[in-house]
Amino acid sequence: MSGSYDDSMIDVSSDSFWEVGNYKRTVKRVDDGNRLCNDLMNCLHERARIEKSYAQQLTEWGKRWRQLIEKGPQYGTLERAWSALCTEAEKVSELHMEVKAALMGEDYEKLKNWQRDAYHKQMIGGFKETKEADDGFRKAQKPWAKKLKEMEIMKKSYHSACKEEKLAASRETNSKLESNNNPEAQKKLQEKVEKCQQEVQKTKERYEKSLEELDKLTPQYMENMEQVFEQWQQFEDKRIRFFRELLLEVKQHLDLSTNHRFQTVYHTLEDTISATDAEEDLKWFRSNHGPGMPMNWPQFEDWSIDLNRTLSRREKKKPSEGVTLTGINQTGSDQPVQPAKTSSSLTVPTKAALAGSNPFEDEEDEEEEEMAVEQQTTVNHISVNKEEMKTASSMEKTPDWSDEDTGVNPFSANGDGNPFEDEPASPVISVAVRALYDYEGQEQDELSFKAGDEFTKIGEEDDQGWCKGRLKGGQTGLYPANYVEDIE
Q1: Which residues pair with 485 in a beta bridge?
Q2: Which pLDDT score is estimated for 40?
Q3: What is the separation of C-alpha 390 from the centre of its chain, rounded to a whole number of angstroms?
Q4: C-beta pairs of 412-420 under 8 Å, 24+ apart in sequence
Q5: Paired strand residues for 433
């Protein structure tokens, strides 16, 4: 085995636009644009009600005080000056009613018509523009995503082969150090190491080839995604520019004051609104949620003894592609592969899609269904094997059971033997073993132990790689055979 592992290779941003399915934020922006239209219309409607209420209060105030002034003792020019306040209130009331009419009759209607022309509802729900954006990105990403999935499978196979090779080499080394080593056993271990090395080379070549094919597709993938992204950048550009234009018109309708302090307020408002720059907004979105985001493209990742492999977000969220092993408590890079457990911890892939999963796996459902049927058959067969083992264990504990307390075996043909015992019972063994790794039992019939613990093996290894053992405390159960070694 050759090559080294660079830790920086696993630090791939899982939030990049280029990751499979991460274009969803750009698609969501289309829906957000329609929502923002509704929010702005509600904003204008509330302001129009305030303008109308204020105008009505000014009118009522002016009429009441004009009558009081006319009936009061005030006279002359001071009376006219005082009455001028009521005239001012009436004129200002008229202006605010005009503001209310402008907000609802012009600005509100203009925004409503633009929204209707820009966003088209579908009969099945949602907007036509949203579906077009999603379909465009999906089509552009599909070939690259499919090849990426194949590359991930090749990488996993290669790393698994490397791990197996390390375990075989470790066993061979330990065998050489033993004083009573068996030449025949030593030869078998050497052949196992050579076979593992060949498998590592084969999987490495397949992995490199898959990665090379993925690299060839990447430029075309980037070009296609850029084209679709720019299409919806232009769509968002129209909305930003329209909102800017509309807000400036609203400002003109609201700006009724001639007072210097109010002029300062409205100048500030105008400067703020005029400072809206569609190009700057688009540039920010591109850098933070679009093609301008940094991306560590997949590169060849070799395996090393110090690698404590961490699953990427894609592997954690993807549905299982076969029988999944659970309950493995890894404490180091030398942890062995746990044998296939004949219990309910085995799972078969389903068609349920998880969040963040590859959106292009829908077309492969038929192939996955065929594989699921075959894997389900295997799981059922394995489950039967484990039930047989549990039954044998329970019979060892209660060999003299009977339906009645007569002491007679109901299956005995002549009262002195069992006609079904054609095959001899498995011999009971007692071998001291030492745990090489930590293991946490996942079911009631499994043992839990730590590396270095010593206990007794009381049953031979079965076809699935499980043995029966007894802890020092007296607890008996199953454990993976490759997690322990015999104590000489």
Answers
A1: 434
A2: 95
A3: 38
A4: none
A5: 455, 486
Q: What is the C-alpha separation between 38 and 17, in angstroms, rounded?
A: 28
Q: Which residues contact 394 (CB under 8 A, 6 or more apart)?
A: none
Cα gap 145→147, rounded to integer Å: 5
The DSSP call for residue 249 is H
With beta carbons less than 8 A apart as the criterion, state whether 62 and 89 touch.
yes
CB 190 within 8 A of CB 172: yes
Report residue 8: phi and psi, to 5°.
Answer: -70, -20
Structure tokens at 96: 């605010």
Q: Which whole-number Å values give the CA distances from 409 to 345, 401, 415, 421, in the listed order?
A: 37, 8, 7, 13
Please state, in angstroms and rounded to a whole number, the distance separating the CA atoms of residues 428 and 309.
40
Q: What span, in angstroms and rounded, lies between the C-alpha atoms of 131 and 117?
A: 16
Please check whether residue 246 is in contact with residue 214, taking contact to mean a CB–CB distance below 8 angstroms: no
In tens, the pLDDT along 185-210 reads 778 888 888 889 899 999 999 999 99
pLDDT at 346: 38
Counting Cα atoms < 13 Å in the Cβ hemisphere of 190 gives 7
- Cα distances (Å, whole numbers) of residue 37 to 32, 49, 253: 9, 19, 19
C-beta separation of 328 from 338 below 8 A = yes
Residue 83 has pLDDT above 80, yes or no: no
| pLDDT above 90 for 94 | no
Query: What pTM value is reported for the model?
Result: 0.46
Tell me what the pLDDT averaged over the chain comes to.
74
d(CA 190, CA 171): 9
Closest CA to 470 of 462, 481, 479: 479
